[in-house]
Task: structure prediction
Amino acid sequence: MRIAVIINPIAGRGRRRAEGAARRDHARTIVGAAGIEATIAVSERAGHARTLAADAVAADVDAVIVWGGDGTVNEAAGPLLGTRIALGIVPCGSGDGLARGLGLPLDPRAVVAAAVRGTGHAIDAGFVGPRHFLNIAGVGFDAAVAAAFDRRGRFGALSYAAAAIGRVWSYRPERYRLTLEGVPADGPLFLVAFANSRQYGNGLVLAPHADPADGRLDVVVVDGGSPVEQIWRARRLVVRPLTRARGVMRARVSTASIEGARLVCHVDGEPFETGGTLDVRVETEAIRIVGAGLGRAWRPAAVLAGTGAAIGEV
Result:
């Protein structure tokens, strides 16, 4: 059994702290106790986790364990898509939406133990143009917030809320042409989000029905409106998320496209900007995730009851 551990030294809540050495030492202790061969590396810059994961694929390891948040997981997952190499996650980011949505353990020892046992489940990966995502991708307001949040240099739920509240007063919806399973829509939209898993993180549940292994994406479309209207609609992220809200449409699709002169986007919280048309698709069973309890968290019976709807206002 051989694994690679990739550590983000600055992932975490509050001010960025250089914790790479402590996390590396902790990882060495854990893999030493498990008696397995491991390569442990600390990422040094944006995009480095992808390079480290590609090196792990070239070395033909059995699993890559990522110690970081959703952005680091997204980077490292890229080279693993479509391979036999499993992905383990030690969540320590600001929101950890994917880990929370999948019910993954917080304890690094449990993650390593699951990797050794080979337990886990394959999940889908979504694509927005050439960029992949495992959790949520978005166009519009949530991407603008992700960009502002990244610039703040402070992390955690309170900082994210501050970035969102500050941005909502000045944000102006862009006009998009959106096509969901061949059904077109055109107009100024506040938010278009594609969810492979359930939540942004910190309990902000965007898509309660999302199943990351069903070959489809849950789409949430929010109409334009005043800041007060958007704040009122946003309550459904934390309070009774299954309740209908005017101006919010939900759909479940396997293909979509979005077109606009200016597309402010994010994949798993990592912002980027483009224009033109982006095709959205799903790659089924693209990557295997290891972790205790995986499989139960994303498929609670109460959540999945009656989820056959395709497109409609919710």
Residues 141 and 191 are 5 Å apart (CA to CA).
